[in-house]
Amino acid sequence: MYRVLATAPLLAATALAAPTAPAKYDYIVVGGGTSGLVVANRLSELNNVTVAVIEAGGSVFNNENVTNPNGYGLAFGTDIDWAYESVEQTYGGGKTQTLRAGKALGGTSAINGMAYTRAEDAQVDAWEKIGNKGWNWASLLEYYKKSETVQPPKADQLAGGATYDPAYHGTEGPLKVGWKNQMMNISFPEVLNSTYKANNVPYIYDIAGGKMAGWNVFPSTLDVELNVREDAARAYYYPFENRTNYHVLLNTEAQKLVWAESGAEATASGVEVKDSTGQTRTIYANREVILSAGSLKSPLLLELSGVGNPDILKAAGVEVKVELPAVGENLQDQTNNGFDGVATKSFSGTAVNVAYPNVEDIFGNRTAAIAADVKKQLASYASDASKVSNGVISEEAIAQFFEIQYDLIFKDLVPLAEILIYPTGSAFSAEFWSLLPFSRGNIHIADASAASAKINPNYYQATWDMTEQVGTAKYIRQLFNTAPLKSLLANETEPGAAVATDEQLSEWILDNYRSNFHPVGTTAMMPKDIGGVVDSSLKVYGTSNVRVVDAGVLPFQVCGHLVSTLYAVAEKASDIIKAEA
C-alpha cells in the first residue's frame, strides 16, 4: 500500500497564477519538468537573481496517479499527459503512435516508470568526440552524484536482491533514489541469476558506474520512507518553495519567444504566454530564456519564434529570425514490445530486475556476420536519414554519427536492448526495447501554432532496427527455455509459439510495438556544421541568450532510462549558466 499525503498544499506559496506574477525576471525557464526545475532551482541559489518557471500544467502533489510508486500508466490519457501523436509511420506498419510526456509540475518525471538507470560511459564520452568539449563520462558522473541522495537498501530490499556501490552515488542531492518497498523475494532474482549466468550474462553489482552490460536489481526515483514517487517537483521545487526569488507560473503555456529589436545575434527579451483563462501577455527576461519544454516541445517553440529552417518557417507563415535548419531534425526514439505468458506458480511483490544484453549476447556466433552486414549498410542508412532531413544534415555528418554508433554496438559492446522480466500473480511478462536505433526522424510546425506539429520518429526505416528487435525477441525465448526460468513459465500466450520465423516476428512487432517514450536529439548539442542546434554551453546558435536544457540536446540515445541522465545534464548546465551570470 502507498500513503497519500493529506497535508500537502494544492499550490505552493510561490506557485503563481500568471496574472499575479511579476512582469520581469532575470531568468525565464520554459517548462517545469525534469530539466527545467533543476535549472531553476540552481539558478535561484544566487540571491541576486530572480527566476520564473513557465509550466503549462498544474500541481500533481496529491494526484494518486502520480504518487503511487507502482502506478505506471495510470496517468496516461489523462489531463496531465501531453499524449503527442505521430504521423502515420511509413516503415512502422502505417499507423500513428502516441508519445507520452508529462503535462504537470514535474514534467515526465511525474508519469514515467521511475527507473533510475544511467548511461554507458562510452556513450557519454562520444558526446565529446563529436565536438562537445567537457561533456564526458568522468565529468557527468559527478553531476549524477550531485543530483542524488541514495537511500541504501533496507533488509527487505537486500533480501530482494538490491545491491549498490556507494562510490557511484550521491548523498546530499535533492533527488531521492532507492529501491521499491514490497520487492519480490530473493527466490525470483536467484532464478534470474542462474538463467542469465547460463547465457553468459553477468550480474552487475551497480549499473550506475557506467558499465551496464549484464543484469541488475535497479533503484527508482522514490521516497522510500513515504513510499511515493520522487518527481522533479518533490525534489527540486517543493522543499525550496519559500525562496522569494523562485516563482513557478502554473497552467501557463509558452507561445513563443519575444525578441529585442537590434543586435548582431538574436536576443530574447521575454516569452509570450497564455494562461488558463486564455489571456495572453509577455513575461520579460533581463538575462536569459532557457527552454526545457522537452524534446517534442522546445524545437516547436524555437520554430514558432522564428528560429529554424527558413523553408519550414516561411511555409508556416512565421517570420525568420535565425536561420538554423537543424531545429527539429535528428529525432531518435526507441520501440517497445512485450511477451506474455502464464506462470506455473503465483508471485507476489514488485519485480525490479533489468537486463542489458549486448550484441554478442543476443546474436552469439552470428555477431561477426551481422556486424559486417550493418557496416555495409551504414552509407545507405546515412543517405536515407539525410533525405528525411531534406538534406539539412549531410550524408557525411550522419555517416560520422553512425560510425560512432556502430563502434559503440560492435566494438565497445554497449548494451543493445533492455529486458524487463516480471511475473505478476499467475501472469508472466517480458517487456523489451531496442536502445540504439539507426532510424532518424523529425518534428516541425505546419502553421503558426504548436498544435500543428508533425511528429515523425520514422520507426524502422533502418533495417537494423527490426533486425535487432527480432533478435531480442528470439533471445527472450532463449531465456524462457533456459532452466531454471523455464520451470516458471507454463506457456507463452503473446505472441505465441506459432510466431517463430523472422518474418512472423517482424509482422508481430509491427502490429504491436509502441513508442518507448524516450525521444531525443531534436535540438542536438554538437557543432552547427554537422547539424547542431546548441553549442557545448547549450546556447542556441545565432542567439545571445537562449539555451535549451532537456532531452532534445542529447546527440545520441543512451542505454539507461533518460531521467537520471537529464538530471545530471541539467545540473551541469546550471553550473555553466551560473559561471556566466
From TrEMBL:
Residues making up the signal peptide according to the UniProt record: 1-17
All residue ranges annotated as the Glucose-methanol-choline oxidoreductase N-terminal domain in the record: 102-125, 294-308
SUPFAM superfamilies: FAD-linked reductases, C-terminal domain (SSF54373), FAD/NAD(P)-binding domain (SSF51905)
Residues reported to bind FAD: 34-35, 108
InterPro entries: FAD/NAD-bd_sf (IPR036188), Glucose_Oxidase_domain_2 (IPR027424), GMC_OxRdtase (IPR012132), GMC_OxRdtase_N (IPR000172), GMC_OxRtase_C (IPR007867)
Family according to the record: Belongs to the GMC oxidoreductase family.
Listed name of the protein: Glucose oxidase
